[in-house]
Amino acid sequence: MTHLPSDQNASGRDLGAEELALLETAVRSGTLTSTKGQFVAQLEQEFAELLGAGHAVACASGSAAVHIAVAALDLEPGDEIITTPITDMGALAPLLFQGVIPVFADVDPATLNVTADTIAARLSPRTRAVIVTHLFGCPVDMAPVMALAGEHGFPVIEDAAQAFLAESQGAPIGTIGSIGCFSFQQGKHMTSGEGGIVVTDDDGLARRMRLFVNKAWGYGDPQPDHYFLALNYRLTELQGAVALAQLRKLPAAVKHRRSMAERLAGAVEDLPGLSTPRAPEGAVHSYWRFPLWVDPAVVDGGVDYLARALREVDIPAAPRYIQKPAFETQVFAEQNTFGSSRWPFTLADPEAVDYSPSRYPGAYQGLDQVLVLPFNEQFTAEHVDVIAGEIRAALEGR
Question: How many Å apart are CA 86 and CA 375, to the nearest integer?
Fold first, then answer.
């Protein structure tokens, strides 16, 4: 078995001389705060330029990016944001901290992404925004989502933490809605260990997001003050230096991921009961991970069987991606928030917090059938061919 590179260590990351050189410059400068340094500002400029966005604001994490985006909308407690139940808690907790009610839309079981139809089914008079998550690097079908948003007059936030340089209808993911959110966490397409960034073309939203990162202190204003309640979500110059070097490698890294993913898909797509990743028409995938959908009606034992078979030959294979939809976690099921207050759930309409399983057939089916394989920019054709061969052996050799 060829050992697979892991994005949790040097084997699967392209960290190297470029990052060390910028880090040395940052350390020697003696300025490690982004309020006085150069690297975070340069990262923001180059990230915005790469995506063709008007503004980029760096921050402490992907969760912070979502928090900043939601805070920029300045919603009222009890307002609703429609989002997905197939996501990390870091993309949901910020809503609760802002007093907003997450309302979960079902997903397409073939992608685990929300759709315009599933969003429309959860609209209410209290809907104020929608967050779409481009899971695994597969873009949500954005044209109908944006048409729905335009019809009802709500902004769209894109959670693009797993979708660096993915595209929809020729536009970079993260630039189609009002705000795009990205993560630099260890396992993402580019990393500074932790960190994140938000992008927007809206001058007003950009101003509010930059303030929110800085405790709402108006750096550079004639008479600065703390204008509203906000946090310190700044990125350090050390993280900015690493992220800047990573950003400059990002286009090549994503191009390589696509090439290897296409090779893997082509090697296994003929296998009965197996579905490989498919982006919507007019969209381009960026392959954060490589998901497979396993039909239990065709493959005896389904996703659990294939996961066990691959793990036996040292291929990390994660069935389900997450063990349960977000609304089944204790945070939502038991409304465990601030002490015993249950706030902000106490502000919610009963319809908004109705988590009946019958509402989410796509989420349950998709989780039951998805198998997530590791993927990173250090995968070679040899690695991909080994994975494909073991999948084929597991399904054909029974």
Answer: 19
